[in-house]
TrEMBL record:
Species of origin: Lactarius akahatsu
Segments crossing the lipid bilayer: 18-38
Name assigned to this protein: Alpha/beta-hydrolase
Pfam families, sorted: Abhydrolase_6
Gene3D superfamilies to which the protein is assigned, alphabetical: alpha/beta hydrolase
An example Gene Ontology molecular-function term: monoacylglycerol lipase activity
Length: 414
């Protein structure tokens, strides 16, 4: 009996030591994440350059058709240089394929490039005659990553649009170090490059995925600020694929690999969680800016997204509705023990909000895809749509053909 008790005690001591060590490692990693250098690498993962040793001047190596995609360089306002791929829309490529294939010099080397002057001429023609997607990717990887290439292919074929896909500063072969302000400048530089090559603002659709949604909102907001005293340069619309409301909120809900909580264990110690968040350098607070966007907006999120919960998209969509609904009083400790009359009033207010929300939002069921909630703003700003899909995950939500079909319908593409 004594031996059995001693074994139980020994096991409990080892278990206690294990969890103490595990807790210590967790605290150390959280503390490490408050430093700017580590924070930057964790958020952007720009040094994760996949696929490794990519040949950016040879897009064909990554399953793109010969001379359909071209490697271009984009210069930013603060003297950084971005690598980017420009992919022709399928209709333009099909119509000009013979000329594109005949453009290389007579060199026997099949990889001989099209002369730069010819490339520019084709790009200018494509931008004048077809809509274009400015694709802002998520963290990690490069423009040659397989899932991103599949987006270019899908947008070029199903949306019949050109695609410009820049790598942010510090990513792939782009110069510089990533930052919140820097990535917004990168998106603006890509926009300016399209405009300089002949693209009309209303022919450019901005599409952001994951981290790219934060960039897209920051960029679109900055673009509106540049309109003062000038003719508006508003894009055809903005599409947010698997967005987050802000990095601060994301920290509370993010699970690494969908399994390991980031800051969730600190919820029982809110003062510690708030202290850690004070050190955030990169915030990407989309929630504070999204309502001011004066363009048609499509928010897309999958229910099986294990990286960023779809509640973030719900929060962004609801932000447009909140000014039109009765305000809920802030919940206080005193209200917890409030009278039955107060409780009834709160319940009635909640019902009133729900009823009014039903009047404001049109719901459209999409067979085997999900459902779309549509909020019609004034005609000048365009509608806001939250498309909640049953599947699609995180990185590949833009590859769901039902999503692409909705994009084509909403933005008159294809």
């Amino acid at each position: 009996m004594a031996t059995h008790d001693s074994q139980n005690t020994s096991f409990l001591q080892r278990a206690r030591q294990f969890f103490l060590i595990l807790g210590g490692i967790y605290v150390f990693l959280v503390a490490l994440g408050t430093t700017p250098l580590v924070q930057r690498n964790l958020l952007y993962m720009h040094n994760l350059r996949l696929p490794p040793f990519a040949q950016y001047d040879m897009p064909e190596k990554y399953d793109l058709a010969p001379f359909k995609t071209h490697n271009v360089r984009i210069h930013t306002a603060d003297n950084e240089t971005l690598g980017a791929w420009f992919t022709f829309s399928d209709p333009f490529y099909t119509a000009n394929k013979a000329s594109l294939l005949a453009s290389p010099s007579s060199s026997p080397d099949p990889s001989s490039p099209v002369p730069t002057t010819d490339v520019d001429a084709y790009i200018r023609n494509a931008l004048r005659t077809h809509p274009t997607v400015l694709f802002l990717h998520g963290n990690g990887g490069t423009r040659a990553l397989r899932s991103r290439v599949q987006h270019y292919q899908a947008f070029a074929s199903r949306l019949r649009a050109n695609v410009l896909a820049p790598d942010y500063r510090g990513f792939a072969d782009s110069t510089g170090v990533p930052s919140e302000v820097g990535l917004s400048l990168d998106a603006l530089a890509a926009w300016d490059w399209l405009r300089a090559h002949g693209a009309a603002p209303e022919n450019v659709l901005v599409v952001g995925n994951s981290l790219g949604t934060g960039v897209a909102v920051q960029f679109a907001s900055a673009l509106q600020e540049l309109e003062r005293g000038e003719k508006p340069q508003r894009p055809r619309g903005v599409v947010l694929l698997a967005p987050f409301s802000s990095i601060e909120t994301l920290l509370d809900t993010y699970y690494i690999m969908g399994l390991v909580p980031l800051l969730a264990p600190l919820r029982i110690f809110p003062f510690i969680s708030n202290f850690v968040k004070r050190f955030l350098v990169h915030r990407f607070d989309s929630l504070s800016k999204i309502v001011s966007l004066k363009v048609p907006l499509l928010i897309v999120h999958a229910e099986d997204d294990w990286d960023i919960p779809h509640v973030h998209s719900e929060t962004l969509f609801d932000a447009f509705l909140e000014p039109h609904l009765p305000t809920l009083p802030e919940f206080t400790a005193a209200m917890a023990g409030a009278s039955e009359e107060v409780a009834k009033r709160m319940t009635a207010l909640a019902h009133e909000r729900a009823a009014l929300r039903t009047e404001l939002v049109a719901v459209r069921d999409m067979a085997r895809v999900g459902r779309a909630e549509v909020f019609a703003r004034n005609a000048a700003h365009g509608e806001v749509v939250f498309l909640r899909t049953r599947w699609g995950g995180h990185e590949r939500i833009g590859l769901v053909e039902g999503v692409q079909d909705y994009m084509a319908e909403m933005f008159h593409l294809g």
